[in-house]
Each structure stands twice: as structure tokens, then as C-alpha cells.
């Protein structure tokens, strides 16, 4: 039972981590678009 709990927790952490990376990539992408349109 304890094993399932930790796995679930790790999955949630992984999801949060991935979501953070994706949002950072989207911010970077938006910045690149801003820069490329300003030239």
C-alpha cells in the first residue's frame, strides 16, 4: 500500500515538473516571436 502512495506522489511531481517546463518553453517561444517580429 505504501508503495502505491509514493508512486502516485512521484507521478504528481513529474506532472508538475513537466507542466513547469512546458510553460517555460511557451514563454521562451513567445519571446522569440516578439524578437523576430521586431526586426
Automatic annotation (TrEMBL):
Organism of provenance: marine sediment metagenome
Protein name: Uncharacterized protein
Amino acid at each position: 500500500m505504501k508503495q502505491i502512495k509514493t508512486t502516485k506522489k512521484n507521478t504528481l511531481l513529474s506532472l508538475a515538473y513537466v507542466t513547469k517546463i512546458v510553460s517555460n518553453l511557451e514563454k521562451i517561444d513567445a519571446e522569440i516571436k516578439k524578437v523576430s517580429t521586431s526586426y
